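Final report, closing paragraph on structural work. Over the funding period we assembled a curated collection of sequence-structure pairs, and we close with a single example.
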Amino acid sequence: MTEILNRVDTVLPYESSQSGGAGGKKPFGFRRRGHGLPFGRGLAGVLFAIAALLAGGCGGKKAVPILPVPVTVAKALVHAEPLSLNAIGFVEPIETVSVKAQVGGVIDRVSFSEGQDVQAGQILFQIDPRPFQVSLDAALAQLARDKSQEANAETQAKRYADLVKKDYVTQEQYDSVRTQAEMLRSTVRVDEAAVAQARLNLDYATIKAPISGRTGSLLVKRGNVVKANDATLVVINQINPIRVSFSIPGDQLPQVQKYVARGKLEVHVQASRNGSSSEVKGYLTFLDNTVDSQTGTVTLKAECPNKANSLWPGQFVDTELVLTIEAAVLTVPAGAVVTGQDGTFVFIVGPDKTVRKQAVKINRTLDSIMVIDQGLKAGDTVVTDGQMRLLPGAAVQIKSSLADKGRTP
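Its predicted structure, as stored:
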């Protein structure tokens, strides 16, 4: 560089003192050891000299070759893939019951543990039955007494019916006896109802599970006094099967109705986004009859088996409503598609190991693959990693492919 500067230093700027032109001075120029040169010709000469010196200084070095860019690739393949709608769902029990006492008394026994699975008809609580047993005994005694009186009144009525025909008693006497027998007959029916009510109250003293499910927190302990139809004792939720509620945009409703008309639609439910829980499959059972005017969505519900208890009431889950299975769609790994200023595109590797940029139209994304509508054909080799270093026409070196790693799009 010092040598170059020394050579250029022989070309010096000057301003002529000789008169010339309107101002008595010649235009600004350069002189080379006493010879003045016009500005344009002198500047060109300087640039040429610098270029020549640089070329001379670098002429002994070879140009650095451009190496191929290492990339990974995959083939565009045709697969059978589901056409589905995804949404966030909410798990809710199909049945939930708040258990309450139907008669008042002291809780004498609790026959389950909190969080225990119970079956319909299983005993949960026992209210002290002795007051209800006493009431039943009293009702039975009253019934027995009135039945005896009824039997006697029936006998009297039959006797007076014979006597009135022979004029031994008056018609008025007969009517009075007959009326008394009918009154006692009605009294017996009232007593029978009282006995039934007493038996029912005694049965209510034993509180049983109305549905099968899992119990929640125990809200009333042993020894507490409860009133009829007052406080909740425990809540039971049906866990298996269970229901998942989710919403879709209203503009997707016609598409759902189209496929619902063809048969049952499968719903896939994933409780954990990190994949730690298994996927649960159920079926669509409910499609709401209106679109929410505030949110613009329509509510759907699916019923799912839940033997492993992987779904829990109140839980948020990922849901996938499968509308149909498309037999042949073109797919590539999601990593192959790049989004730029001009839209989405991929780099296609040609037979000469150079790439070209190809715009594509994406239909949908399915986990780690994308369904392509336009821009590719089956068998195209696309770059899946290393796109940031690529330009159209660049040479590439294929490191590996997804197929080499045992993965397919």
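Confidence is low (pLDDT under 50) at residues 1-60, 404-409. The longest strand covers residues 316-333. We thank the funder for supporting this effort.
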